[in-house]
Design a protein that fits this description.
The protein has 471 residues and is of the alpha/beta class. 34% of the residues lie in helices and 16% in strands. It is built from 17 helices and 16 strands. The strands form four sheets. Strands 3-2-1-4-16 form a five-stranded parallel β-sheet, with helices on both faces. The longest helix is centred in the last third of the chain and has 30 residues.
């Protein structure tokens, strides 16, 4: 059998057109393109791609079904282990996970697993979802706090096990970072809504506008539920701590993207929630969030959108695909550049930076940026967006007595079970690990659901034995 050496290209919007809209950049495979790409899979026996998937999707299994044009069965195969495939197929860093270990990739271009996952998920959205089969109810109740990827996955997996699940979300729209943190041109809101709808069809009860730690405490939840899963993510923005950072015209990336995504600033004037961008927008950081903010600023009308990063492009944590898209759209990059002061009076007018050079590797394995003395320079800026990472949401740890936290504010959990220092309270995702990927948060949610189900069923068994020890 002759195997195609290169992957089937992903159809995309032309950069000259997409910079004028918030429509999805990647258009997705056609059925013919999906089958052609799927046929590149050599169905190797050791299946290294599966071991590279944090949620253990049967990748060769679903790809084989795609080659046979059994697309409905392919999505069912994926959903055996992954409840959010349309999201994963778009935003997960497959190049660092499943695709990285593809056997074909040792000699040719690897199979584009994420693109195929997206295709079958979109096929289901187009033709209609198959009916959901609910298991026999266990009679046990679990509360899940936070409807981001960890919470949605935990809720879905618990429901699949027969537990009654209530999912609490602080905002008016479910989805967490999937809804407010990732722009529409990368992850359309209708896709997130469809995935949330699937979780609801599994029987999960969704309660929005409920701030746990304010509306209800964790202790109050434990009065009504057998266990609680905390998946509140990393929503506390980090800042640089430099002079001028409190001037008007400074956004955290969190605020900038929430205003754009959740409050629909990108639909102004249809929605009266505009975001001021000015002519010159400077974005500080090198991750996916920084790239998202830079691309968003151009679409909102900025004449110049510049990413300031203290290392080189090689060290940027953002996905290569996203960096490429940003470059195509006109985003500029200043590498080896560290902001040291923000200038302005009543409003930001500029940003002073220092040139850097790379030294020895630090704890992350990347070479440490070192300042070059006397190399200061200034750039014009109307807006500065700080995208240098986020910390764990502090509300529940602060409002829950006896809940042990780590030095960085993340919640301490038992590594095997995911249970916190509070009996019956489990946690997972960014609130435990710090800022990480969507798929790793999903993996934590899945692991947490299994542990919670075992805990509440074991607790029920012990209670029954205590009432009737002769059984």
């Amino acid at each position: 059998m002759v195997v195609r050496k290169t992957a089937v290209p992903m159809p995309e919007q032309d950069p000259r057109e997409r910079i004028k809209n918030f429509d999805e950049v990647a258009r997705g495979y056609s059925p013919e393109q999906a089958v052609e790409e799927a046929k590149r899979c050599i169905q190797c026996k050791d299946r290294p791609c599966v071991s590279g998937c944090p949620v253990g999707v049967d990748i060769p299994g679903f790809i084989k079904l795609v080659t046979e044009e059994r697309f409905g069965e392919a999505i069912e195969k994926i959903k055996e282990t992954n409840s959010l495939p349309a999201i994963c197929g778009r935003v997960c860093p497959q190049e660092e996970q499943c695709t990285k270990y593809c056997t074909l990739g040792k000699k040719f271009e690897p199979v584009m697993i994420g693109r195929l996952e997206r295709f079958v998920a979109d096929y289901e959205l187009e033709v209609g979802s198959t009916p959901v089969t609910r298991p026999e109810p266990t009679g046990k109740r679990a509360a899940v706090v936070g409807s981001g990827p960890a919470g949605l996955t935990a809720a879905a997996e618990l429901a699949k096990l027969g537990d009654e699940v209530s999912l609490f979300e602080a905002l008016h729209k479910p989805g967490g970072v999937l809804m407010y943190g990732i722009p529409n041109f990368r992850l359309p809101k209708e896709v997130v809504n469809a995935e949330v709808d699937y979780v609801k069809r599994l029987g999960v009860k969704l309660e929005t506008d409920k701030v746990i730690g304010k509306t209800y405490s964790v202790e109050e939840l434990l009065e009504s539920f057998d266990a609680v899963f905390v998946g509140t993510g990393a929503g506390l923005p980090h800042f640089m701590g430099i002079p001028g950072e409190n001037l008007p015209g400074i956004y955290s990336a969190n605020e900038f993207l929430i205003r754009t995504n959740l409050m629909k600033a990108y639909l102004f004037p249809e929605y009266d929630t505009p975001v001021k961008v000015g002519r010159h927008v400077m974005i500080v950081g090198g991750g996916n969030v920084a790239v998202d903010a830079a691309r968003t600023a151009l679409r909102l009308g900025a004449e110049e959108s510049v990413i300031l990063y203290r290392r080189t492009e090689r060290e940027m944590p953002a996905r290569i695909e996203e960096i490429k898209h940003a470059e195509e759209e006109g985003v500029k990059f200043h590498f080896l550049c560290q902001p040291v002061r923000i200038l302005g009076g009543d409003w930001v007018s500029g940003i002073e930076c220092l040139k850097m050079k790379l030294g020895a590797p630090d704890e992350s394995g990347r070479r440490r940026p070192m300042p070059i003395k006397g190399s200061e320079f200034t750039l014009d800026a109307d807006i500065v967006v700080v995208a240098i990472g986020q910390g764990p949401n502090p509300l529940i740890p602060r409002c829950t007595p006896g809940l042990k936290t780590n030095k960085d504010g993340t919640i301490w959990v038992d590594e095997e079970t995911g249970m916190t220092s509070r009996e019956g309270v489990f946690a997972g995702g960014d609130i435990v690990t710090g800022e990480a990927t969507v798929i790793l948060a999903m993996s934590a949610g899945k692991k947490g659901a299994v542990a919670i189900h075992e805990y509440i069923m074991d607790k029920a068994g012990k209670s029954a034995f205590a009432q009737n020890p002769s059984t």
